Every structure is written in C-alpha cells, then in structure tokens.
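I am still learning, so can you show me any protein sequence you like together with the matching structure tokens, please?
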Amino acid sequence: MRKKILIAVLMCRFLSAMSASDIEIAKTYLKRAIINRDNPQISSFMIDKAGEYAAFFPECEFLLLENCRKTGNFGNAEKLVADMLIKRDKAFLIDDYDIDLLSAQIYYYLHSYKEALPFYKSVISHPGKRTFDNYLEYLSCAFLADAPAAQMLPVLREASSLFPNREIVFYQTLYSFKTGTTPFGEPIQLIRQLENNDYSVQEVQYLKSFLVKNEEELGIFIDDFMQIQDISPKWGRDIVYELLRRLTITDERILDNCLSLWEKYDGNNDVRTFRFLAYSPLADWIKSNEKFAWWADYTGKRTVDTDNNGRPELVVEVKNGIVINRSEDKNQDGISETEFDFYDNGKIDKIYIREDNENFWCYDFNQYDGSLLTVENVRAGKLAEKNVMRRGAFVFNESMPYPVLQDLLVDFREEYRDGEVLRSKFSEGKIVMQEKDSDGDGFFEYCALFNNGVISEAFIDMDKDGVPELHEIYDNGKLVQCESGYSNTAGVYYYKEMFANNTIEKYWDNNRDLKYEILEKTLPSGVVQMYFDSDNDGVYNYMHEKNKDGTYDVYELNSDGTKKRRIAAAAAKQRTVKMKNWTVVSSRNADLLPIPDEINFFDTQTEGMSGFFLYKNRNFYFSDGLLESPDFSFRLLRNGERLFLFDCGA
C-alpha cells in the first residue's frame, strides 16, 4: 500500500511538472507515427521521440504491437500488451475497441487462446464498431481454446442473426460436433448447405471427417478423399491425423491409404508422426510395411506449425530415428526459448533455456549416467555464472516440457511448472533453501531458508530489482514477524509486523532514523492502539485507542508508564478533526483550529516527510515532517494512506 501511494505521488508530481507543450509534442509525434504506421522503421522512430516528451499514452504500445505483427518479432509483445492495458484510459487516438482487438489478436498470434478470448468478447460487445471478421476471430479462438459450450452458443446465435453467412455455418457445424447437439440443424444438412454455396473444399472435408464413426465409413471417406486435389498440406494432415487418432483401424488397405495421404501432405515432416510410430497396431504395421518402414529410421526435421505461417512452434531433429535436438519457440519470435540437445545414443546432452540469443541458461549432462554436471548462465553473450553439481540425475521425458529430477538426495534442483520456476537446495536429503520464479521470467522473487527441513525465514522481491521488500521470520514453521521497506544503505527494514498470543503489532519508521515512531497494536479483544513518537526521541508519548464500537480516545503517555487522557472521549470527536484522510490531534477547539488546505509530498526517501502545503493561498515548504505557518505548527506522521498531524501549539 505504501508503495502504491509513492507511485501515485510521483505520478502526480511528474504530470504536474510536465509542461502542456511537452504533452502536445508527444501527441504530434504519435500522430505522425499513425500516419507512417505502414513503415515500422519510421513509426518506431516517431514513437521513441514521443516517449522523450510523454510516455504515458497507450498509443505508443499500440503502434509498437502493430510493428510486431509487421516484422514477425513477438519477443516483447506480452509486456507491450500489459503496458498498453494499464495506460488505456489515457488514449487520445484509439479507443477501447482498438485496444481490445489488438490485445486479442496478439494473444491469438502467440497461441495464448484463453488469454485472447475475453478481449475478443469485449470487441464484439461494441455495436457500432464490431465487424463480421471480429465474430469469426472470436469463434476461431473459442474452438482453439476449447471454450465451454455455454460461452460459444450465445455468440454463435448473435453472429448468425447479424451476419447470415456461410462462414458462420462452418462454425455452427463445428459446434454441433463439439457438443453433440443440433441447435442450428443437423450437421449433414449444414454441410450440404456449405457445399451448395461453393464453400472451401478442404474445410468441408474437415467437417465431413467428423461424420466418420467406424472403419467401414472411414474406408469410403478415404477413397473419396484421395481423389480431391484442392487440399492444402495443413488441412490434409489435420484431417488424416484426427481420423487415425479417433478410430481403431485393422484393414491394411485402409491403413495404407491413410498413411499414403499422410505422406502426400508432408506428414512425415510433422512431429505427430512420432505418435504413429509409437501407437499399436500402427507401429508394428508401419515397421513391417516396406513403403513406410523407413519412417522409423528417418533423418531430418519434424515440425509443428499450427498456423502454417512458416515459423514452427516446435522443431524436432532426428538422426537415424533418434531425436538429437528439440527446439520450442512457442511465441514464434524466431528464438528457441527451450532447446534440448541429445547424444547419438538418445541421452540428454544439453538444455538451453533462453530469454534471447545472448541471454540463456545452459544445463550440461553426463552422457553415460545422465547426471547433471554444470549449469551455466549466459548474460549479454558472456558467461555470467557456472554451477558445478555434486550429485543429481535428470531424465528426459517427451511428455514433459522440462527435465524432471528423479533423485531425492540432491544438492540442487530446478523445477518448471506452468511457467513457474522453483529452485531448491538440499543438504543430506533435507531442504535448506528454496527460490521461486512464479512467472518464469528469470527473476526469483521468493527465497525461503529452512532449518532441519522447517522454514525459518523468507525473502520476497516484489518488484524484481534484486532487493527483497519483504522479510518473513518463522518459529517452528509459524509466521511470527514480517518486515518490509528494506534499505541497502542502512541494511535494515523500516516496517515490521509481529504476531504473538493473538496480538498483532505493526511498526513504522517513516523518517528512516532507525526508530519506530508509530506502533499499531491490535489486541485479542479487537481494540486497536496506535502509539506515536511525535518528537522523534525514541519514546512513545501519545496513544490513540479505538474500541470495537468505533469510539476512541487520545492519551498522553508519561515516562513512568502511566497515561492520561489528552482529550475526553465525549470531546474527542470535536477535537480530533478528520478530513482528506487526515487525523489532527489537538487539545484546542477543533472548529477554531487552523489547518493546511492541502499537503503535497515529494521526498520519497523519507516516505513523504518533506514537501509543501497550501494555506490561505500561500505555499509553505516543510521538511522532516514539521509543518509551520504564522498560525499553526504541526508535527506530521504518516501511516500508509493516513496522515496524523499533532498540534505543537497545544
């Protein structure tokens, strides 16, 4: 929360300091970038120039994302989408429709169909701007994301009503096959309607393949299919693969025809060929058939290119039937984020995990026993880190995206799960340290230390700058203290929470003097006591006590441990003035008490303890939390979004 306040304060200062002319210059450059959007080089130059004057317009990311599509480089696309969405309310050339449509299309190109679907849904909710293509893109994405039928049916009905077009009939038919229902008519009738309208032959054949229910029907379908010429390799492979995947085939003539079609449509260069070679009875039949036996000893590359754009997501290189390299480029930016090299005997050699071609991790394995030898970290093309492993055996499994560690007694372990990276350090079979990278971006934002297998400390780096903002302390596995606001210079934390006996204590050191000037204590009874060191001498001299019923008192604390009420409970509501999230503590009449009209902070290093305030249309500078004018003097303390002003003249 404190960090959000700082960001908001800094943004307000930044925007107020930025001249109107700078903003207009930035807008002019962005308008020029829009005009030159067909030329990525000129457009990028204009965007950079705009950013020199004002970088908070989402048009910057919008145009850069358009350039991503033109150049085919999607390496930074997800971050650009996230930044554009954060800034969307500052748009002046584009609207919500443009932003949602481009976000959806980028996620679609990155094969992140589930992420794209909500944006497509938003796009078709714009009656004045939505187009027929928008509906087609939504439906295509919905089927690829395997969206629930309840999400697709209303959109199909709406699209059918607005655009009675044959493309919609194609998706109506697909929906019937997906759900086993017929809200738009029998699939056979829908397919016939498409044929009568001269719809794409290959897509009609794709739909017809779903009508095939047994081996006899497959034989008839394949005989007819072999006579058709207007089928692209991608559609041909998809049709044959789905048929072989769904049906059990024993007739050798039908098998021969299916696999002949698979080969005709370049199927032997498709990674899915591996399934045929491992699937019984196809595997034995292929190996015994002279025409296809060589598939098992294939040498070359097999790929997966789902959108047939020439940038495959997966490339598997085979030598004499043995996989020797496997490269995955899921976002199709030309960089293999994950690459596996194998020895000729099929055992793992190296694994590369890349951010780009100059920044990657390399795992090196022993050829004979499969043990991990070293882990190297390359930054900017140079070796930045090398880890020599004492013990550990990795095995490679085709079904797993990353190697899986099998040995329980290891020195070091890295696990990759759904984009998350988990590192663990062991000693004598017990965990001693664990690091977590929740989004797989290479930054380990969580580190936990263990004592005898039980967690003792944890460090959390929320903004991934290498400095842990949170420090947790545990006792027998139970969280007892949490600290935040770490200072590299002083080596301390400026905020902490302590938990014991159902009591929560929170401490703040806002002015960075290594003394906690605010203590908030929540008692088991629900009473909240807030202690203040208003003169920064290390001793609490005020206590604000709030009861469960919302009533409160302010006490002055004496050096002997006694306390006296500073303001009577009945008078507290009158003399403690709350406005604009301020609490003014004074013994004087609240209605007559002069207070600032406005307070502005700009010293982030001291948590907003310096700045200027407005009073009677004059600006007054203040520092170290002391606000002074001819009419008043206040000591300011800050607790999150709450400001406490102590009347020094009381």
